[in-house]
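1st attempt posting a full record on here, be nice pls
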Amino acid sequence: MKNNQYFTTDKTKMNVGKIHRYICDLSYWGRGRTIEEVERTIEHSLCFGLFEGATNEQIAFARVVTDHSFFGYIMDVIVFEEHQGKGYGKQLMTHMMEHESINRLKTLALKTKDAQKLYGKFGFKPIGGSELWMANDKVILL
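the predicted structure (as tokens):
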């Protein structure tokens, strides 16, 4: 990884204020969330952060709600504005998909309005006729 960037799942390193500001003020999916709600979602999720090594500035964030065996739901995927367009979203997704708690899951789902192309690169396909819901499903139904 360039510039000594690193990933962590350590929730104490996540910049909750920065995450809250992005979700509440800039995202299309989380307008109006309180800081308390964001703190609670982080507490009850497997979180991934990408950081700049020299400054410990948070570059990206995502979280997964999961049972750690069969199902996970990817939420709040963020590349902060000043870092967008540099491939960090792809790096974050690659790291998440390779993580042992995510890699073992049979089904991963997510909902997106505008990132179908990115998620398609990781095996996500639309669910039914939905333009928003996608899944990466390893389960073969008999």
